[in-house]
Design goal:
Belongs to the class I-like SAM-binding methyltransferase superfamily. Cation-dependent O-methyltransferase family. This protein is an alpha/beta fold.
């Protein structure tokens, strides 16, 4: 799940050829948002690791990229990004409650959630699927973006986390849009296919067991309509996918999955370095 959060414990900067981990002493995150009606001000007393340089650019050292300058997300720049996010108050409350829970780093970041909600709105999506709800931050953002007649099938195997999510669905008055499915994501997707729901979904977000990504993806390709979108989280995996010296099973599976997506002509793709990296797939 998303590793960049307002309570960020580690920030990795990905250049085109090198992964740089910032390991300076911690400092407070001081993001403040100009007040927007209906939205929360993002503040945090939690900490992130800082760096001495304020330079937000990395220049590719391979001439085939034309010495292109690309933005690297320094702590100062990430503060600025957070300061320009419209986070609904109910999402802020959920984020802050989740911050005190075990595994809070699994929650997607506000910038990710904002992008997911916008994709749903751009698509005009009415039927969505999420694999890996955790405490519901991303699913709540999606549900808020859906029309009143919309549906989100939210799949999660952790019953305790689902109770938190359902509490916030109710507080946000979106419970009628969210069909919670407690169980293994692959089993739930197979059940949806067997009950005749193939090609009936507009949007899917995958943030579950990483080594199952290929199976989830193949099942979702059956469930999502042509022109629909599948978003996969954690495709950069803290930068480990770019490090040839890291070959543990989970990193290797994500790296292999990314390569398969590159070669899959059934979809158009865009890998986006937001949060821990997402790939947006549009079914052709």
């Amino acid at each position: 799940m998303g590793s960049y959060s307002v309570g960020l414990q580690r920030l990795s900067v990905l250049s085109i050829q090198n992964v740089v981990f910032l390991r300076r002493p911690k400092r407070p995150l001081s993001a403040v948002v100009t007040s927007v009606p209906g939205y929360a001000t993002i503040k945090s007393n939690q900490t992130i690791r800082s760096c001495s340089s304020t330079n937000a650019f990395v220049v590719a050292d391979d001439e085939k990229y034309g010495n292109k300058q690309v933005v690297s997300i320094t702590p100062r720049l990430y503060d600025y990004i957070l300061a320009n996010i419209r986070e609904p108050e109910i999402l802020r409350q959920l984020r802050e409650e989740t911050a005190s829970m075990r595994g809070s780093q699994m929650q997607v970041s506000p910038d990710q959630a904002q992008l997911l909600a916008m994709l749903v709105q751009i698509l005009g999506a009415e039927r969505c699927i999420e694999l890996g709800v955790y405490t519901g931050y991303s699913s709540l953002a999606i549900a808020l973006a859906l029309p009143e007649s919309g549906l989100l099938v939210a799949c999660e195997r952790d019953a305790k986390c689902l109770e938190v999510a359902k509490k916030y669905y109710a507080r946000a008055n979106v419970s009628h849009k969210v069909h919670v499915k407690h169980g293994l994501a692959a089993d739930i997707l197979k059940s949806l296919i067997l009950t005749g729901e193939a090609c009936s979904y507009d949007f899917a977000f995958v943030d579950a067991e990483k080594r199952m990504n290929q199976e989830y993806y193949e099942l979702l390709l059956q469930l999502v309509r042509v022109g629909g979108v599948i978003v996969i989280d954690n495709v950069l995996w803290h930068g480990k996918v770019a490090d040839p010296l890291v070959n543990d099973a989970k990193t290797a599976s994500i790296r292999n999955f990314n390569q398969r997506l590159m070669e899959d002509q059934r979809v158009s793709i865009s890998m986006v370095p937001i949060g821990d990296g997402i790939t947006i797939c549009r079914k052709r």
